[in-house]
Amino acid sequence: MAVKIYIIYYSMYGHVARLAEEIKKGADSVEGVEVKLWQVPETLPEEVLGKMGAPPKSDVPIITPSDLAEADGFLLGFPTRFGMMAAQFKAFMDSTGGLWGTQQLAGKPAGIFYSTASQGGGQETTALTAITQLVHHGMIFVPIGYTFGAGMFEIEKVKGGSPYGAGTYAGDGTRQPTELELGQAFHQGRYFSGIAKKFKGTA
Q1: Can you tell me the distance from the alpha carbon of 13 to that of 81, in angstroms, rounded to the nearest whole number?
Q2: Which ranges does the record mark as transmembrane (predicted)?
Q3: What confidence tens digit (pLDDT) does each residue in 117-155 have?
């Protein structure tokens, strides 16, 4: 039976969505894994999003809390807001109280990826503060550590990401994930899939 991995994200300007797509490619490269992309619901009105210059959402399906119980592992992605996950993703997590009450997600592995505007904008704190959501559900945080190899030590080029997970810098919104950042995202998907298979195999 295939290991089900859900990549769940919120993306206002498309940067996190781009990482999610690459993470899916990496996860799909592992045999015996079934991967699906999901978006969390938007909480802002269209009028507000329009004033913020946000592009239309993609056709990736919107997840509901009940969908989570079907998966064996999760990769959660979001942009930062003052060093923490965006409110849209937090609102979704706040809606998972029923799953928390029954601990249906306990023991399942989860990873994190993210986007920030600048180098001091929360590349590590965004992931660090998000771990509390996993802890209360009894989930097991799976960081990438330094498994990405030499790419983790790149200092000549601006590069998002950290041992916590893949990341990118959005800047003023015009900067897109670089080849190196996308490579790290692909690696995270592949690495996480391998870990998720080990969990499922020993269950």
Answers
A1: 13
A2: none
A3: 998 888 999 999 999 999 999 999 999 999 999 999 998
CA pair distance 144, 183, nearest whole angstrom: 13
Tokens 């990405």 sit at which residue?
Answer: 148
Question: What's the angle, vertex CA 130, arms to CA 16 and CA 3, rounded to 5?
Answer: 70
Q: What does pTM read for this prediction?
A: 0.96
Quickly list DSSP for the chain: -PEEEEEEE--SSSHHHHHHHHHHHHHHTSTTEEEEEEEPPP-S-HHHHHHTTPPPP-SPPBP-HHHHTT-SEEEEEEEEETTEE-HHHHHHHHTTHHHHHHTTTTT-EEEEEEEESSTTS-TTHHHHHHHHHHHHHT-EE---TTTTGGGGG--SS----BTTB-EEE-TTTT----HHHHHHHHHHHHHHHHHHHHHHHT-
